[in-house]
Amino acid sequence: MTTMCGLDTGSDISQLASVLADATRAKVCVALMDGCAWTAGELAHHTQTSPQAMSSCLTRLEDARIILRIRQGRHQYVQLSDERMARVIEFLGSVTGPSDAPVTGYRQVRADQRLRYARSCYNHIAGHLGVDIAQHLEHRDLITIEDGSIRLTGNGLQWFEDEGISIPESRTAPRIKACLDWTERHFHIGGYAGSALLSYLLDQRFMEKAAPKRALHVTAAGREWFSKELDITVVDPTARA
């Protein structure tokens, strides 16, 4: 039987586990969770490894079908193979939990707070805000969350349409998926609905990509939107107790 990750046998799972057991390769996967394409040089700098070591690292990840290489003119980029692989990485993070290593230094602490509050999980919203969105949608009967799965209700489909958020239809994949948040240990919304929501918020400038990579910042207009449309009070993550 083939799993959601395209794995057919126990040996496939063993291979995936072996590849992700390496700290540098794991860091690369986490970096690619921002949904963007990176160059090998950028990843080498991010993980503080040599170009030669990064080349070997990316080959292993590509052989395991975790990443894809994309050529654009003379340049080559890499990204996660698909959203399913992103959900695997996010799920593994939720199982292992946040690092026990202490977060020290003013800038590092603030960066950690921003990532925990709102970040991109491949192409949808994760962190405290992502979970908050899912819970408010459920409270308003726009989605149902049961047994690890999320379903859009009729009211939910209408709400997305009324907001001008277009969710693509697919015969092979559900419109909305549950993604277990690794910091909050609750579900946020993924799939086409999660992707469409984040794209809408970025297009309307209700949210902006911020430092560190994957962090999402809610603008003043976005705070008004969240309050009006979802009854969510957005807070400054660096001021959280």
UniProtKB/TrEMBL annotation:
What start-end ranges are recorded for coiled-coil regions in this protein? none
UniProt domain HTH arsR-type: residue ranges? 7-100
Q: Name one GO biological process term.
A: response to cadmium ion
Single GO MF descriptor: DNA binding
InterPro entries linked: ArsR-like_HTH, HTH_ArsR_DNA-bd_dom, HTH_Metal-responsive_Reg, WH-like_DNA-bd_sf, WH_DNA-bd_sf
Q: Gene3D superfamilies annotated for this entry?
A: Winged helix-like DNA-binding domain superfamily/Winged helix DNA-binding domain
**This protein is called what?**
ArsR family transcriptional regulator
